[in-house]
Write a structure and sequence with these properties.
Layout lengths: L1 H28 L25 H18 L8 E6 L2 E8 L2 H12 L6 E4 L2 E2 L5
Parallel strand pairs: 2-3, 2-4
Antiparallel strand pairs: 1-2
Length: 129
């Protein structure tokens, strides 16, 4: 009975030592500690600190959110507005009826969470049909 207890106790000690060495190795490697990480995960899978991870998914989500925001914006006909997103930078192309709608579209998209910049290339005039 004593042998079993001492083996189990030794195994627990080895496991604790291994866990402690992993923590120390991470601390020395410069890996970010919990204090440096945001308290809340970014919305919709956005990755503010590392644009190469999840960028495609984040851009797809931002594009969809921008299109939805434009469709729901008062005083804006967004049927001919096209949205593309690359690394959280949104580009608006297409045609709107007047300058006020062009400015409104840029403003609506700029205020979305996760958008870092907006390039507004909207043309004023009649949409081509």
């Amino acid at each position: 009975m004593r042998k079993r207890f001492s083996r189990g106790f030794r195994s627990a000690g080895v496991g604790a030592a291994l866990a402690l060495s992993c923590v120390l190795a991470l601390a020395q490697s410069g890996a970010p500690s919990g204090a440096n990480r945001p308290a809340v995960a970014p919305p919709h899978g956005l990755t503010p600190g590392n644009p190469s991870v999840g960028t495609h998914t984040s851009d797809t989500i931002l594009t969809a959110r921008a299109k939805a925001a434009l469709a729901g914006a008062d005083g804006l006909q967004s049927n001919e507005v096209h949205v593309t997103t690359n690394h959280a930078r949104v580009t608006l192309t297409g045609t709107v009826a007047d300058a006020a709608q062009r400015d409104r579209a840029g403003s609506v998209v700029q205020h979305l969470d996760g958008v870092t910049s907006v390039t507004n290339l909207l043309q004023v005039g009649k949409p081509p049909h």
